[in-house]
Amino acid sequence: MLFGLTKAYSQNYELKGALKDSITKEGLAYATVYNVTLKKGTQTNTDGAFILEVSNGKNLLKIVHIGCDTKFLTLTISKNTDTVIYMAHHQHELEDVTIVAEKNKLIQLEKDRLKYEDIVVSGSKPIASILDKMPGVSSLKTGFTIAKPMIQGMYGSRVVVLNNGLKQEGQQWGQEHGLEIDPYNTGQITLIKGVEALRYTSDAIGGILLIEPLYNANDTLKMSLTTAFTDNGRQGNLSASAEKLLTKKLGLRLQGTYKKAGNLNTPDYYLPNTGFEELNGSLTIKWQSSKHSSFEIFSSIYNNKPGILSTSHIGNLTDLQKIINNESVPEKGNFTYKIARPYQQINHLLNKAKWKYEISPSLNIEAVYGFQINKRKEFDSHNYFNKTTPSLDFTLHTHQVDFVLNKTFKKGLFMKTGLNGYYQTNTYIGRFFIPNYKKSEVYQFALLRYKKNRHELELGYRAGAINLDAYKWVNNVIVRFPFNYKGISWQAGWLYKISTDWQTSLQIGQVWRNPNISEQFSEGLHHGAAAIEYGNKNLKPEIAISVNGTLKYRHNKTLFETEVFVKKVENYIYLRPKFPPELTIRGAFPAFEYVQTNALFAGVDLLLNQQLPNNISFIEKVSLLNVYDQLYSTYLNGIPPYSFNHSLVYKIANSKKLTNSSFRIAIQQVLKQNRYTAGSDYMSPPDGYVLLNAAFTTNVSRYKNLLVFLSADNILNKTYRNYLNRLRYYADETGRMITAGINYKF
Amino acid sequence: MSKRIILKHILFIGFFIAIAAIIQSCTDATTPPLPSDETELITTLKVELTDTLTGQKLNYFFRDLDGEGGNAPSQWDTIKLADSSYYRVSLKFLNESNPNSIQNITLEILAEQTNHIICFTSSVVNAVISRTDTDGTYQVGINSTWKTGAISSGNIEIKLKHQLGVKNGGCDPGETDVQVVFPTVIR
Lengths: 746, 187
Hints:
A: Maltoporin, Chain A; B: alpha+beta
C-alpha cells in the first residue's frame, strides 16, 4: 500500500493556483480545492492561494467556497503548473451578517478560528471548553459543566460573545454563569479584536467571540445526525438537524440537541452531583423576498439543569479551611444520573430578525432586531427553607436594534456605519444578589477600511451613552439609583503584506467599559462560595489602551503566527479581600470588595504548524501572559498560567474503506501560576500539570458522509487541579475521558 | 422594491416586536421584591435554659436581623450560669428579618432531623453538654442537658450542621448553617 502511494507520487506534479472572485478579482480565502482524481484536497490561504498535488494527464478538480456554487473543472497537466481560477459568487446570496464582517476582516489568523470539524468532535463539552483550543483563549470554570471564555486573561463582561450577530446576554450575572450556546449548532467560531469589534460593542476589552450557527440549505433535503458517548459521566448526546430550500426563495433549518450526563469521576473518586441534562433547539428561516432584499429569522432555545458539586456548597470559613487542610475527608459520591440540590435551572431564548436590502451593488443596508430572555433559577441545598421554589430566580429581558449601512467606494475604500440600541430589564424573586434594573444604551459607530497595494488600513470609532436605573429597598422604601455613562472607543489597524509569505500587522486602540451591575451592587453572602461580597456604586468606567502586533508566515509546509500584546487598563475592577473576616450567625466569612486599580496585561500567543515528511504535522500552541497590578505593585489573581500544547497529527493515507483519516496525539502542558502574592487567596495556585490527549477521526467510504470520531482526554488518568476552576479548593479535575461518536449526513 | 413588499416587511417586524412587547409587559423592574421575602435566613439563635433544681428560666440570644454581612449583630449575649448546676436546654432558630412575620426555623429542622445535627463545644468553661433527643438513629441536639462545674469563664460554641444524606453522628460532614460562640461565665 505504502509502496503504491510513493510510486503514484513520483508521477505527480504541483499545481500552484490562486482562486479569485470573478467580479472583484479578490482572492477567495478558505475555499476547499479537491482533486477528485487523486482524492486529495487542500484549502486556500487568506489570499486565495493554494498548492495541490495533481497527476499526469486529466485531473478533475472540485472547488467549494461559502457563497459560491460548487465548481468542477478538468485540467490537463503535464508539468508543474501555475494557474488562476475565477469563481462567481451568487448574485444575491442569502448571507449572514457575521460572514460579511468576517470577510471584511483585516487580520485573519488561523489561531483565532475554530472550524466545524473541530467543534463537532468536541460537542459533548460546554462550548467555552472547546474554545480553549485557540492559543490565548482559556476557560474559566465553576465545576465541570459550567465554563465561560477568557481571552488573554480577560473575562466576564470584558469578553463579548456574538451568537449569530447578537450579543449573548447573561454574562453580567457573574462567574458561575456559563455560556448558553449549543456547540452542535455551531459552524464556526472566530475571535475578533480591533476595529471590526467596534461594529458590535465598545466594551470588549478582551475581544469578541463570533459564533456562527450552521446554515447550508439547498434544493435537496439535508439531514444530519450526531451522536456521541463519553465514558466519564456516562454522557450521551444526540443532535439532529434538517435543512432545505422550500422554494427558490425560502430556506429552512431545524435543529435539536439532547444531552444527559451523570456524576463525573476524578482518577480516585466520583464527584457528587456533577450531572446535567440539556435540551436545545433552533430554527433558521432565510427568505430572499425580492431581487435585492433578504430576510432572516433565527430563534434558539437553550435549557440546562446542571448539578453543583455538593461538596463545594460549604457553610463558612472554618468548613473551607478544613477542606483545604484535608482535615475532613471529601465526600465521595457514587455514579448516578440523578441531579440533587444544589442545582441550577437555566433557560435562554434568543430571537433574531434581520432584513438586508441592497440599494446598489456597492451600497446595502441592514436592519436587525433581537430579543432575548434569560432565566436562571438556583436551588440551594437547603430544602427546609423552600421546598419547591428556587432560592434565587432571575429574569433578564434584552431588546436590541441595529441599523447598518455598508458602502464600497472605488479605489479600495470601504465604509460601515450605523446605529445600535439596547433596552434591558432585570427582575428577581428570592434572595438578593443584584437589584432590579432598567438599562438603555445607544451607540453610533463608523469604520473605514482602505486597501492599497500591500497595505491595508482601518480606522473606527464607537460613541455611546448608557442610562441605568436600579431599584432597591433601603430602610423600607424603594430607592432608585440612576447611573449615566458616556464614552468613545476608537481603534486603528495597519496590515502590511511584506511578501507572499509574510505579513505583519499593528493595532492600537482605546476602549471603555462601564461597571456592571454585580460590581456595583453585590451585597451579602455569595452562597456556595463562602464569601461576602460588597459592590461599589462609585466605580468609574474602565479605560483600556491596547497595542497588539501580529506576524504571520505561510509557505508551503509551514504556518507560523504570533501575536504580541500589551493592554493597560485604568480603573480595572476586581474583587479584593477585605480584612478582618466578618462574623455572622453562620460563623466567620472572608469579605471581599470591588475595587479599582491600574492593571497591565502583557503576553504572547503563538501557533506553529509544520508539515513533516510521511504525512505528519507538528503543531505547537503557546500562550504566555503576565499581569501586574500597578497601583499596589503586586500580581492579580485568577490569571491563566503559561500553557503549551504540543501535538503531532498523522494523516493516514486514504484506503478503500476509510478516507480523510487522521490521528492526533497532544501533550497539554500547563505550568504553575507563580506570579502570585502569598496569602491573597485561600489556597495558593495548584501545581502545573501535563496531560496526554489523543483523537482519531475518519470518514467511512461505504457511507459517503459518515464521520467517525474517537477521542481520549487525560489518557494517563492524572490527578490534578486547574487554577482556573473556582471549585479547585474542593475537588480534583476529572480523570480519563473517552468519547466515541459519529456524524452522519444524509 | 415594490411598496407591497416593504409593507410586508414592516408587518413582519411589527409582529415580532408585538410578541416581545407582550412578554416584556409581564415584568416590572421598578418594584423589587421586599427584602423580608427572603426566605432562607436564620437571624436569631435563642438558648432557653431551665435550672432543674430551682425551675429558674434563662434566655440568651444571638441576633443579626439583616443576615450575613451588612450591620453587625444587634444582640450577642454572654451566657451566665450558676456553678454545680444542672440545666435543661432547648434551642430556637428564628428568622426575625420581618418583625411582622417571625418564622420558627426550628420546626423545619425538626421535620428534617435526619439531615441535621447540633454540636456543642465548651472551652475553658466547666460545662458538660449532652444531647437528649434523637432522630431514631443519631442524636439531634435541639434539646440537651448542661451540667456546670466549678466557677470559670470561657466560651461555648453552638453549631448547626446541615448534613444532607451524609449524617453519621459526627460533626465533620456537611455544611455549617449556624456557628455562634457565646462567651460564658459560671459563677
